[in-house]
Amino acid sequence: MATESALRLALHGLDPCVHCGFCLQACPTFVATGDESDSPRGRIVLMQQEASGAIDVGDQNATYHLDRCLGCRACETVCPSGVEYGPALEAVRAESNLERPLPLQASLALTVFAQPALRRPLLALARWIRPLIAGLASRSRVGFAAGMLAATTPWRPAPRRGSSPPHRPRGSVAVFRGCVMEGLFGHVNDATARVLAANGYAEQPVPEQGCCGALHAHAGLHDQAVALARQNVLAFASQPNASIAVNSAGCGAILKDYGRLLKHDPLASEAEAFSQRVRDVSELLAEAGPRQGAPLKLRVTYDAPCHLCHAQRVTEPPIAVLRAVPGLDLPVHTESDVCCGSAGLYSLLQTPLSQEILDRKLAAIRQTEPDVVATGNPGCIMHIGAGLRASGGGGGGTIPVVHPVEVLDRSYLEAGFY
Ligand code: SF4
Ligand code: SF4
User: Residues 285, 230: contact at Cβ < 8 Å?
Assistant: First the structure.
């Protein structure tokens, strides 16, 4: 009963639901299956039944449909009643994990992300093999994994020259470097630091930082997520006056939520202060202008990561970043704010549904005929990148999927800022 009470408390955010159904067509899993139990409204009923004791926590049918939720939070954006779906889903998953262990592949992945001694050599190996396996990209499970890794390859070589010319100072910034971002997207972290410097933000190093814990929280591993959050709150206390710039939407969403995650922790007030300092890199750049670079003749389709547009409600700043590049053609992508099916470990655990959701995204992207796709989250870059490689245009004909700051960085390089 203690478990049920704790769950009921965590599910208060669902109380405003009036079961109107406005959220149904915004939900990628409902659109794919047409099953009410795969919709936000259906899942809210299942969660409330678990919390009230009407069904057992971990009930097989409820778990089946809750596991199929992407956690994309598109339902929150469209909900007129202000239902807080994401935190409730995390709480239910945490309770379910008391009844059943996570699948082995998920446990292994989450252990590796949390442990630098395991993560660093494995991701170094991954960087080494990615050029060798790029040609293996396909729709098979192994081929898709190869495509995901190949999609982390830098878009262009890093600039040889050093720092940008002086610009009006805008304050100091500490870049959150993450785990997968640092291991596979170090080039994006470096581009982030360069474009911030070019816009007047002075970078302050925070060497003790680590994994944000987002994937652990989404998988219901509450205690592990809290431990990782505490480590980051303490690490960034070394730069108390710096904004915390993050370039991964999934990381940014939980970093901005550390105040809630550590609400009952001795570091609660420090966590809240930490969260107040966190900004997506596009928010900082948009505040700065951002500075215009050299023209690039490219057709760039922007795809909005769920954890940026729904969880953080950051929609315009990434477009402002791209508009700072003269000459870019930015076609409207009608499915930009719909989940691509990556969703943390979802593509690993719910592969068929993940692929179905991805196919819809790829069709919408291809309609815009882009030279480049830009999106601000590593999972989306890998998932969309692998999909594009696997569904035609593989090898040399692949449409690159990059972070928006990489486009601005290339423009700044052409302008001679570096
Ligand atoms: S979550 Fe919001 S939009 Fe969906 S049924 Fe409930 S009140 Fe309506
Ligand atoms: S989080 Fe996404 S997949 Fe889950 S119910 Fe909401 S809209 Fe549907």
Answer: no
Neighbours of 249 (CB within 10 A): 27
Nearest ligand 1 atom, CA 22: 3
DSSP state, 311?
S
C-alpha–C-alpha distance, residues 113 and 214, integer Å: 10
**Read out DSSP for 60-122?**
HHHHHHHHT-----HHHHH-TT---HHHHHHHHHHHHHHHSPPPHHHHHHHHHHH-HHHHHHH
| Interval between CA 23 and ligand 1 midpoint (Å) | 6
Q: Report d(CA 166, CA 184) in Å as an integer.
A: 30
Structure tokens belonging to residue 202: 């002075």
At 226-254, the pLDDT tens digits run 999 999 999 999 999 999 999 999 999 99
* Protein residue whose Cα sits closest to atom 2 of ligand 2: 72
Confidence of residue 255 (pLDDT cuts 50, 70, 90): very high
What confidence score (pLDDT) does residue 1 get?
A: 39
- Which amino acid is residue 247, in one-letter code? N
- In ligand 2, the atom with minimum distance to the C-alpha of 339 is 2
3-class SS of residue 349: helix
Strands 372-374, 300-302: parallel, antiparallel or unpaired by DSSP?
parallel
Instruction: Give the separation between CA 347 and CA 109, rounded to whole angstroms.
Output: 13
Distance 133 CA to ligand 2 centre (A): 33
The ligand with the least distance to the CA atom of 25 is 2
Cα 418 to Cα 412: distance, rounded to the nearest angstrom: 7
Write the single-letter amino acid at 344. Answer: G
- Pick from 15, 51, 21: which is nearest to 36 by CA? 21
pLDDT in tens, 213-233: 999 998 888 899 999 999 999
- CA 320 → CA 287, 291, 301, 317, 330, distances in Å? 9, 10, 14, 5, 11
Element (H, E) at 30: helix 28-33
